[in-house]
Amino acid sequence: MSGEVFQQNLDDKKGSRPGGPFIIQMLFKEQVEMPKQEQILDTMKRHIGKVDCFCCDEKMAGVAALGHIAEFQDGKSPVQLFLMGCSSFEGKSFDAFLKSQMWDCQNDRDRIFEECQYQVMATDMLAGALAAQERADLDMDFTEALAELFPTCEAFYFQNSGKLFLAEDVRNNQISGYDRFIRFGVNVRFFNIEGTEDMLIDTVGMNTLYLPDLQYHFHDVDPNWIVNHAYNVASYILENNNPIQDGETVDGMVNGRMSSQIQWKCQYEEALIQPVREVIDIHMGNYASGGR
Asked: Nearest 5 degrees, angle CA 266-CA 270-CA 273?
């Protein structure tokens, strides 16, 4: 765990807004060309289904996902997926706070930020109008298509969750279903509260799907147990379109395993750690900290 000290800053408005674009940065050691339109269409079709490429040059490629329709009061439109042309990348733009929570790539993180000088940005548009499960699947299908389209990609950085992965881990992913989004699109963060024995674990990324993030403020429990609990509850929320109401309970943990014998109360509130967002605060009974 990182020993660095960070300042709580709830005035910091950085971070994705609820339902905002799902943004991916693909990192490269050398410049890369935009794939040809035919290759983009073929790859996207195999991963996403029926698509149409409405623009493609060295600066940008745009694909309409014809099987995923965003409906609005004044009409409807297919969700759009965009690839930006290759541009320069500076790893030093990532501050220590963001780096401290990149748990999936700790051994390679500094090397990636030093060696990768180029990036290709990718994002969706209008996808916030989709149901959470449909969007989760679409964004992960898009991610898998990108991993195939850019074989020289060194790493994927998912802006919404703050997760960094080696590209080979994305290509070799064996997780299926909605848990793909939990794997790449949701980060479980860990903080020690300075001057106390308290710890805080929360999630980032669920609000991309208009779902609540999670928060645990606690003491005297192995934090690895709570990390696993958070991923399990996040998966449950996505799988069931968030059935948890304010004041209800979820299964707690006994000896590192979730157990119905212990119930932890859920309360909706504002996050304790930036970015500002709504979270489900899970009160861990005798292990809970704070004045809730």
From this structure: 105
The tokens for 148 are 């195939």
Q: Which of 183, 204, 230 is the last residue of a domain?
A: 183
pLDDT digits (tens, 9 = 90+) for 177-231: 999 999 999 999 999 988 889 999 999 999 999 999 999 999 999 999 999 999 9
Rounded CA-CA distance 139/143 in Å is: 6
Same domain for 199 and 168: no
Q: How many residues does the chain have?
A: 292
One domain for residues 150 and 207: no
From 137, 154, 183, the end of a domain falls on: 183
Structural domain harbouring 274: 187-287
Quick check: is 13 in a domain? no
Q: For residue range 126-141, what is the model confidence (pLDDT) as tens digits?
A: 999 999 999 999 999 9
Model confidence pLDDT, tens digit, residues 136-158: 999 999 999 999 999 999 999 99
Bridge partner list, 203: 188
Report how far Cα 219 is from the mean position of its chain's Cα atoms.
26
In this structure, what token pair is assigned to residue 94? 């990532």
Residues 161 and 218 in one domain: no
For the segment 48-74, the average pLDDT, to the nearest whole number, is 96
Separation CA 48–CA 27 (nearest Å): 23
Distance of CA 194 to the CA centre of its chain: 27
- Does the predicted model carry a pTM greater than 0.85? yes
Q: Hey, how many other C-beta atoms are within 10 angstroms of the C-beta on 133?
A: 16
In order, the DSSP letters of 60-117 are EEEEEEEEEEEEETTEEEEEEEEEEPPEE--GGGS-HHHHTT-GGGTTTHHHHHHH--
